[in-house]
Design brief:
Radius of gyration: 60 Å
Number of helices: 8
CATH class of the domain at 90-195: Alpha Beta
CATH superfamily of the domain at 90-195: Band 7 domain
Shape: elongated
Number of strands: 10
Distance between the termini: 217 Å
Order of helices and strands: HEEEEEEEHHHHEHHEEH
Largest sheet: 3 strands, antiparallel
Helix content: 40-55%
């Protein structure tokens, strides 16, 4: 059986080869770790702020910027932090009971407030109130109270008929109270009014009666307008008749004036209108007109006849 013997030189060569391989592997691992760390640091240098939000940058817990816009924003890792704040409209709703000035109760009053944070005062809101504390510290104590006070100053009937005006009053008062804290009121609404059933029935009857009265008033005005139109039409007709009569009178006056100035105007007018045909015998009564043939072409009037012409009977001699 063959025997292998390793010399001292062979052992040294083998050790050198194994040591060199391990050093390269360690170097590669170290480089990979460094790259991973650098990538993590690089990714942590940027924070994305979503649309509808505003970024607030903190440095060791202190606000240094409060107006970072939507998109990619830079920060120093482990030193700075960026938090998003929703600056869109927020909704706060509360249910409450209230009384009107005439002691009518309004049950389960639904109040809804729309608001948003002021971008210019965002730092003050965070420092003084806290974004998460706005509702408990500012809205809960003020919305229901101001609404109840405003409703308590009006009558129940006015509240029903003028709800919009009451809402505007409450919104104005809430704006005055919340604006100094950086809360912008955008809308306020009273969503429902629940009165005692008997009171609601009385209001409904009153509204119906008012509507009926308005209808009658409109009908009366319509009749009055029709009467006015009839009077106007009659007056216009009368004025027209007067105008016609005045025109006719003026025409007659002008004709008379013309006749007085020109007596022969009638004969001239008759000749102008004559068709050139002489009349025949007209009628058998008094003063008949008889046409006389001849060259003269004139016509004379026959004497009046009171009785038919007498025709004598034939004599005996003539019969013979």
């Amino acid at each position: 059986m063959a025997e292998f013997k390793f010399t001292e030189a062979d052992k040294n060569t083998s050790a050198k080869k194994s040591g060199g391989s391990g050093g390269k592997t360690g170097t590669i691992v170290f480089a990979v770790v460094i790259i991973v760390i650098l990538l993590m640091v690089l990714f942590n240098c940027f924070t994305i702020v979503q649309e509808g939000f505003i970024g607030v940058k903190y440095q060791f817990g202190r606000i240094i910027e409060d107006d970072l816009s939507a998109g990619l924003n830079f920060r120093i890792p482990f030193v700075e932090e960026i938090q998003e704040v929703d600056i869109r409209d927020q909704i706060y709703s509360v249910t409450a009971d209230a009384y009107t000035s005439d002691t009518q109760s309004v049950n389960d009053l639904q109040l809804k407030l729309n608001y948003r944070y002021s971008s210019a005062m965002l730092s003050s809101i965070i420092r003084d109130t806290g974004i998460n504390n706005v509702e408990n510290k500012l809205l809960v104590p003020n919305v229901a109270k101001i609404a109840k006070d405003a409703i308590g100053k009006v009558k129940a009937e006015d509240l029903v008929q003028s709800r919009g005006q009451v809402q505007t009053t409450i919104q104005s008062e809430l704006t005055e109270v919340l604006n100094p804290y950086g809360i912008i009121v955008t809308a306020f609404a009273i969503e429902n009014l629940n009165f005692d059933p008997a009171f609601e029935a009385s209001i409904q009857e009153k509204v119906i009666a008012a509507q009926d009265a308005l209808k009658m008033e409109n009908k009366t005005k319509e009749k009055e307008e029709e009467a006015k139109q009839i009077v106007i039409a009659a007056k216009a007709d009368a004025d027209s008749q007067v105008a016609i009569a005045e025109a006719e009178a003026k025409a007659i006056s002008l004709i008379e004036e013309q006749l007085s100035n020109s007596p022969n105007y009638i004969e001239y007018y008759t000749i102008q209108k004559w068709n050139g045909i002489l009349p025949q015998v007209l009628g058998d009564g008094v003063n008949p007109f008889v046409a006389i043939s001849g060259n003269s072409g004139s016509a004379v009037a026959a004497p009046a006849q009171t009785s038919p012409a007498y025709t004598p009977a034939p004599s005996a001699a003539s019969n013979e």
